[in-house]
Amino acid sequence: MLTEKVKSAIQDIRPSLQADGGDIELVSASDDGVVTVRLTGACGSCPYSLMTLKQGVESYLRQAVPGVKEVRQA
Q1: Strands 34-41 and 70-73
Q2: Per-residue pLDDT tens digits for 33-42
């Protein structure tokens, strides 16, 4: 159930990443609230990818999906 909610929330932020030449893929979402994603395209090699992951993706997912505690990069 958490996985489906995270997939839906990722669709909301995907256009912002794609506008900068990147994208995001959900790798996994565990029952303990740890979500693993893969940033691809320009986001995969950007020196600011960790900032994007924590301040952008993690912040949004924690707000949008109850139960998400942390987002990690694959």
Answers
A1: parallel
A2: 999 999 999 9
